[in-house]
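Quick review question:
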C-alpha cells in the first residue's frame, strides 16, 4: 500500500506531497481507497462531499450495532510529508489484515474512514469533512468558502464528480473512533518508545489579517509619506513570535499575499494568516487579542488599517480519559498531548468516545517533505492498532 501511494501527488523537485482536496491526486487516492476496501470485502460508502467509510461487519450477531471506526485523511498540506494522514489510513487497513491473520472475529463492526479536507489547505477550514459530518459546520455556510483561485467549495465538490445532495456520512453507527497518526513532535523520541496515545489537543485557529495601505512609487515617495501595510505586517509577525515565546504558546504567519506584489511599488494590501495555538482556550484568546492590539497600534503609526477575520477555530479537546487509560494498559503506552489538529478532535467534540494512537517520528518534523517514520515503528503502530481494535470490538468488551 505504501508503495502504491508513494508517487501520488508527489513533487519531483521537493519530494513533498500536494494532495489538495477535490483535485486530481486526491480523487486518485479516493479511488485507491475504495479499491483496497473492496478487495478486502469491505463495503465502501462515499458521501456527497467525498468522505468515505468501509465496514467489516461481524459474520453473525451484532452487525447492525454501533461499531469501532478507525482511519485518518489522505489530503496533505502544501508540500507536505508522506505520513500525515495516509499512515492512519494504511495502518487501519493493515490492522484489519493482521486481525484476520490472527483469526479474530469482531463482535461488533469495524469501519475504516477517510475524511476530506482535514488540513484545510484549500478552503481554510481545518477538518472540514468531519466538521460537516458532525454538524459543527453546516453545508450552507461551507458551500460559500472559496479557495485561493476564488473557486467556491460547492463548485469544487461538483467538479470532482460528487453531489452534496447525496447527503453526508452518518456517524450513528460509530460507538468509538480511533485515529492513528504519525507524531508531529519529539515526545515519543524523548521517551524512547515507538507508540503512544493522546490525552488532549491544544485549542488552535486561523485568523486572516488584512492590512490595507496606499500603493505608491518606491522611489519618489518619501519614507515619511508612506502608508505601507508591509511594515504593519512585519511588526505583527514579530509581535506574534514574541507573545508566543513569552507565553509558552505557538504563533505562526506561514502564508501571506501581497498586492500588487511589485518590486518597485509600496504595496496596497498585505493579507497574512496567523495560525495560533495555546494550552487553554483562554490563553489562546488572550494571545490572539494581544497580537491584534499590537497590530492595531502599529497600523495607527503606519497610517494603514487592519481587519482581522477568524477563519477556523478549534476549541481544546480532552479525549475520553477512561478510554485512554483502558487502551494505554494494553501496551503500557504513554499518554501525551498534541498541538496538532485532527478529525479525532472533531468527533470527540461531537460526543463520540475517541482515542488517538501516535507513531514515533524520529525528528519530530511534520508538514514538510522531511516528515518521516521508521518502518519498524509503523509496523509497531499497526500492531498496536490491531490490539486496540481487538479490545474495542471483542465479544464481551465493555460498551
Ligand atoms: C493539522 O495538521 C494541523 O494541526 O494544522
Ligand atoms: Mn493529519
Ligand atoms: Mn497535518
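Suggested answer, residue by residue:
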Amino acid at each position: 500500500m505504501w508503495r502504491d501511494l508513494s508517487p501520488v501527488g508527489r513533487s519531483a523537485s521537493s519530494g513533498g506531497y500536494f494532495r489538495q482536496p477535490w483535485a486530481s491526486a486526491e480523487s486518485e487516492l479516493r479511488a485507491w481507497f475504495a479499491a483496497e476496501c473492496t478487495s478486502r470485502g469491505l463495503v465502501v460508502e462515499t458521501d456527497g462531499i467525498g468522505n468515505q467509510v468501509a465496514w467489516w461487519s461481524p459474520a453473525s450477531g451484532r452487525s447492525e450495532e454501533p461499531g469501532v471506526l478507525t482511519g485518518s485523511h489522505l489530503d496533505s498540506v502544501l508540500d507536505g510529508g508522506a505520513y500525515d494522514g495516509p499512515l492512519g489510513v494504511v495502518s487501519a487497513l493493515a490492522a484489519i489484515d493482521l486481525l484476520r491473520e490472527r483469526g479474530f472475529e469482531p463482535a461488533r463492526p469495524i469501519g475504516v474512514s477517510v475524511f476530506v479536507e482535514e488540513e484545510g489547505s484549500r478552503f481554510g477550514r481545518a477538518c472540514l469533512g468531519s466538521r460537516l459530518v458532525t454538524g459543527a459546520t453546516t453545508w450552507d455556510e461551507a458551500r460559500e468558502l472559496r479557495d485561493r483561485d476564488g473557486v467556491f467549495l460547492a463548485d469544487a465538490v461538483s467538479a470532482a464528480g460528487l453531489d452534496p445532495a447525496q447527503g453526508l456520512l452518518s456517524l450513528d453507527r460509530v460507538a468509538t473512533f480511533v485515529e492513528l497518526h504519525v507524531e508531529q513532535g519529539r515526545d515519543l523520541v524523548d521517551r524512547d518508545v515507538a507508540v503512544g496515545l493522546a490525552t488532549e489537543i491544544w485549542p488552535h485557529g486561523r485568523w486572516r489579517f488584512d492590512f490595507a495601505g496606499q500603493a505608491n512609487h518606491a522611489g519618489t515617495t518619501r519614507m515619511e509619506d508612506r502608508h505601507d501595510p508591509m511594515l504593519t505586517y512585519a511588526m505583527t509577525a514579530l509581535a506574534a513570535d514574541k507573545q508566543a515565546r513569552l507565553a509558552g504558546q505557538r504563533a505562526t504567519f506561514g502564508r501571506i499575499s501581497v498586492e500588487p506584489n511589485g518590486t518597485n511599488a509600496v504595496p496596497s494590501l498585505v493579507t497574512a494568516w496567523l495560525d495560533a495555538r495555546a494550552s487553554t482556550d483562554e490563553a489562546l484568546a488572550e494571545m490572539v487579542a494581544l497580537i491584534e492590539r499590537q497590530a492595531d497600534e502599529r497600523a495607527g503609526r503606519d497610517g494603514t488599517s487592519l481587519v482581522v477575520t477568524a477563519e477556523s477555530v478549534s476549541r481544546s479537546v480532552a479525549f475520553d480519559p477512561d478510554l485512554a487509560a483502558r487502551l494505554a494498559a494494553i501496551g503500557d503506552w504513554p499518554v501525551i498531548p498534541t498541538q496538532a489538529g485532527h478529525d479525532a478532535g472533531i468527533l470527540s467534540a461531537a460526543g463520540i468516545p475517541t482515542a488517538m494512537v501516535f507513531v514515533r517520528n524520529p525528528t519530530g518534523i511534520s508538514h514538510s517533505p522531511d516528515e518521516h517514520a521508521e518502518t519498524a515503528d509503523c509496523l509497531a503502530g499497526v500492531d498496536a492498532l490491531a490490539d486496540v481494535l481487538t479490545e474495542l470490538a471483542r465479544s464481551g468488551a465493555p460498551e
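Why it works: Residues 161 and 247 are 46 Å apart (CA to CA). The two ends are 33 Å apart (CA to CA).
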